[in-house]
Design brief:
about 550 residues; alpha/beta; Ribose 5-phosphate Isomerase B, Chain: A; Aspartate Aminotransferase, domain 2; Aspartate Aminotransferase, domain 1; 3 domains; 7-stranded mixed sheet; 5-stranded parallel sheet; 23 helices; about 15% strand; globular; binds pyridoxal-5'-phosphate
Length: about 550
């Protein structure tokens, strides 16, 4: 067991004696000071807090005249729970109940012999793991979701209010929006960091501004991790979003008027794949393909025939609302036959790819674009992966082609997100997203709802509410929203309704899986969805489900 100890000048004598005595039974790191010269207590509290927060030490001991200043300073750090202890009872209770990991002692308040006893009691008392204490400690951690932004309470209460509202919504509702997820605290820390302050036009080692060493390091880390995680030859982590990642590929490889063949928006494709109202549809000649009318799945033979006829420069696959696996090997064959570039937009399934729950497009495609905030669960942003031979073209398309300075804080959060996937522990998570989706989908289907393509292989499915209940996706989504279940209306292939009304809803399981929900919870949620959709005018059912959903959400806290 490792103990880190420090004091200010007021606690110096006691600290010196304690450090020596503790060294007889423990590994002790003494962070100073080394004499009684007047010094500033936060410097020493910070040093101890960093050692404990990083895991370099198991416990911290801080001594000043009252212990109060030290505890305040140490408690500013994540994962630090610093308690002032005046008695051995204090030490016992704060360990058991609060799981304190730093003990703060007032040198004016207790004798040095008793102080030693307090510290020994502190480090030898185990944390009480009974339900009520775990629950309360969890609430302390959860309060941090708000306290992270609580400076705004004074500086900008209106913005703080919006953050409170989002926090409450996440805490009390079931989020099934297939394109959303819940970011980790680590990602949010990086995204909100001072890296936001830096202009860094260019790329690591070749910037237009001075002072870029810190951001060079973080961007290089993000690029390297992206390549390692996805097995890519080159990564550009600067695109601000998924749409601009796609723009980068088009700008790098196409001239205006060139042909892109892509899945059309109303069939599950994305705006940036050539929608008429998007830059992609305005600049390029778009040849849309569809799913098969009967199976509602991609028909690779039909895609091949169409591509052979229309000779696109880029054949683009990937979707926002396609519930089935995509056969990238088959798409590669088609591209080789046609002699066109293969581009895959894996925005929705990137997390499944990273976790091995969907085949990776990277070995097959010339370009893979993605967002980092959907199943991947990182910050809102985009990325392009490509073969080395296209690296230069992609990099110049992003900067100076279409963007100025990169968002280095967001790039840092991307790096954090990639690292979270690299350990391999998230493989189970990716599998669980898909497993949860299968169960949720089956539950709704068993209640008589028509599922587009009959099921799902990934993190989302589409319910045809129009043919099942004669209602629009818009009405279905509104009723579910009133019941605390958040989905989105979505067109289904060959939809007879307008994109504003739609015949379907899209349901995804990334966010609920991040919260730790599993199959039993999916059965509950699926049953609620059917209960609400069976009669969208029944507000009593909506209220009942809202209450039950809130109870369930409370049991699965958002990270
Ligand atoms: C979400 C998505 C994008 C990009 O979205 P942005 O909002 O621009 O980040 C791109 N392609 C697909 C397939 C998507 O689903």
């Amino acid at each position: 067991m490792k103990i880190v100890i420090a004091s200010d000048h007021g606690g110096f004598e006691m600290k010196t004696v304690l450090a020596k005595a503790l060294a007889e039974g423990f590994a002790v790191i003494d962070r100073g000071p080394s004499d009684k010269t007047a010094c500033d207590y936060p410097d020493y509290a910070d040093a101890v807090a960093l050692d404990v927060a990083s895991g370099a030490a198991d416990f911290g001991v801080l001594v000043c005249r009252t212990g109060a200043g030290m505890s305040m300073a140490a408690n500013r750090f994540q994962n630090i729970r610093a308690a002032i202890c005046r008695t051995t009872d204090d030490a016992t209770v704060t360990r058991q109940h609060n799981g304190a990991n730093v003990v703060c002692i007032g040198a004016d308040l207790v004798s040095v012999e008793y102080a030693l006893e307090i510290v020994k009691t502190f480090v030898s008392t185990p944390v009480d793991e009974s339900e009520r204490h775990v629950r309360r400690r969890m609430k302390v951690e959860r309060a941090q979701r708000l306290s992270d932004a609580s400076g705004l309470l004074k500086d900008d209460p209106e913005v703080f209010e919006a953050i409170v509202a989002q926090t409450r919504q996440e805490d009390t509702e079931i989020n099934l929006i297939a394109s959303e997820n819940t970011s980790s605290r680590a990602c949010r820390e990086a995204a909100g960091s001072v890296l936001m302050n830096k202009y860094a036009e260019g790329y690591p080692g070749k910037r237009w501004y001075s002072g870029c060493l810190p951001v060079d390091a973080v961007e290089e880390l993000a690029r390297r991790r992206a390549c390692e995680l996805f097995g890519a030859e080159h990564a550009n982590v600067q695109p601000h979003c998924g749409s601009s990642a796609n723009m980068a590929v088009y700008f790098a490889m196409l001239q205006p008027g060139d042909t892109i063949m892509s899945l059309s928006l109303d069939q599950g494709g994305h705006l940036s794949h050539g929608s008429a109202v998007n830059f992609s549809g305005k600049l390029y000649n778009i040849v849309p393909y569809t799913v098969d009318r009967t199976s509602e799945m991609l028909d690779y033979d039909a895609i091949e025939r169409q591509a052979m006829e229309t000779k696109p420069k880029i054949l683009l696959t990937g979707a926002s609302a396609y519930p089935r696996k995509i056969d990238f090997r088959r798409i590669r064959e088609i591209c080789d036959k046609v002699g066109c570039l293969m581009m895959v937009d894996m925005a929705h399934i990137a997390g499944l790819v990273a976790g091995g729950a969907h085949e990776s497009p990277v070995p097959y495609a010339d370009f893979v674009t993605t967002t980092t905030h959907k199943t991947l669960g990182g910050p809102r942003g985009g990325m392009v992966l490509c073969k080395e031979k296209y690296a230069k073209a992609i990099d110049s398309a992003v900067f100076p082609g279409m963007q100025g300075g990169p968002l280095e804080n967001i790039i840092a959060a991307k790096a954090v997100c990639f690292k979270e996937w690299m350990g391999g522990e998230k493989k189970d998570y990716a599998r669980q997203i898909v497993g949860n989706c299968a169960v949720l989908c089956a539950t709704v289907k068993d209640r008589g709802y028509r599922i587009v393509s009959g099921g799902t292989d990934n993190h989302l499915f589409l319910v045809d509410v129009k043919s099942t209940k004669g209602i629009t996706g818009k009405a279905a989504a509104a009723a579910l929203d009133a019941a605390g279940i958040v989905v989105n209306k979505n067109t289904i292939p060959f939809d007879s309704e307008s994109p504003f009304n739609t015949s379907g809803i899209r349901v995804g399981t990334a966010s609920v899986t991040t919260r730790g929900m599993k199959e039993p919870e999916m059965i509950k949620i699926g049953t609620w969805i059917a209960d609400v959709l069976d009669d969208v005018s029944n507000t009593a059912v909506q209220e009942r489900v809202k209450r039950e959903a809130k109870e369930l959400a409370a049991k699965f806290p958002v990270p």
